[in-house]
Design a protein that fits this description.
flat, 11% strand, 2 domains, alpha+beta, 292 residues
């Protein structure tokens, strides 16, 4: 038998394997197992991200602003630290194949051209004639992107193997398909832990004092489960939300955005429990944690 899951593991650790080829094989697996978040992530890596998409944090790079002088490129300095940090950061939206081409054609530094609109903004707000022409980034940052993609596929395939999902000869049994459905939350967490919503700034992490409140409300919801009068579908949704938060709470760096969204989903479910006396108390507890 030839397991496609172990193939993914072998190819993920082999840097000689073409990365788009690895992603396409992973896409087939995600498609057959109906793991939607992985399908979407792989599709974006292969075809590029759009403005407004949730983009992985590993695609954010930092560089040095340069302007073209008579003697070549020279550093462009901005005194204000906040403006400097914003101006020297970029999200790379390109397909992974284009990033590989850039990497292969560059020796040590890649120059990303500053678009005309941004150059006009520099002239307007800094009232100077000299404006940056490019953002210079090291090729090692592209290598970091490639390694991050390979690591996600490796962790995913190892987790599937541990769960008993192998996909011999690219065929998944009904039992394997069911196992994939039962473990959707943990698979999707591999992607979510690498993501940042554009416009939201950096990922915010939960402090220890709030973690205790979150653990307490999770336990209260679990204890009240049988008294909420939920149908099987809603109970399943509630369990997915609880599991999502539990995984974050147990991680080294709990992601506040993921926890908040999961708590909002749980609150929406509880708001439909009109006949339950305990639901309003749980709703109030969740609202105090998320702040609205």
């Amino acid at each position: 038998m030839n397991s496609v899951v172990t193939q993914l593991q072998n190819e993920a650790i082999n840097s000689d394997i073409d990365l788009p080829q690895l992603l396409r094989k992973a896409y087939v697996v995600a498609k057959k197992l109906e793991i939607k978040d992985f399908e979407s992530w792989i599709n974006s890596e292969l075809n590029g991200y759009n403005a407004g998409d949730i983009v992985p944090d590993y695609r954010k790079v930092h560089g040095t602003l340069k302007f073209l002088s008579l003697s070549g490129y020279a550093d462009y300095k901005i005194e204000n630290e906040k403006i400097h940090n914003a101006a020297t950061s970029r999200i790379l939206f390109q397909p992974i194949s284009e990033l590989e081409d850039l990497y292969n054609k560059s020796k040590s530094v890649i120059h990303i051209e500053i678009d005309p609109e941004t150059r006009l903004l520099f002239k307007k707000y800094f009232t100077v004639e000299i404006v940056p022409d490019v953002l210079a980034i090291s090729v090692s940052q592209l290598k970091r992107i490639f390694d991050s993609v390979r690591n996600i596929i490796l962790e995913w395939s190892l987790k599937m193997e541990k769960d008993g999902i192998l996909g011999d000869d690219l065929v998944f049994t009904p039992e394997e398909q069911q196992l994939a459905k039962e473990n959707l939350v943990t698979y999707n967490m591999l992607i979510q832990n690498s993501q940042v919503q554009l416009g939201d700034g950096n990922i915010q992490y939960v402090d220890n004092s709030k973690l205790e409140d979150i653990k307490e409300i999770l336990q209260s919801i679990a204890d009240a489960m049988d008294n909420l009068n939920l149908n099987s579908d809603k109970k399943g949704e509630l369990n997915v939300g609880l599991k999502t938060i539990e995984l974050q709470v147990e991680s080294k760096s709990p992601n506040q955005n993921i926890i908040r969204e999961a708590l909002k989903s749980i609150r929406n479910i509880l708001e439909g429990c009109a006949s339950s006396a305990i639901a309003p108390i749980l709703i109030e507890g969740i609202t105090k944690i998320i702040g609205f």
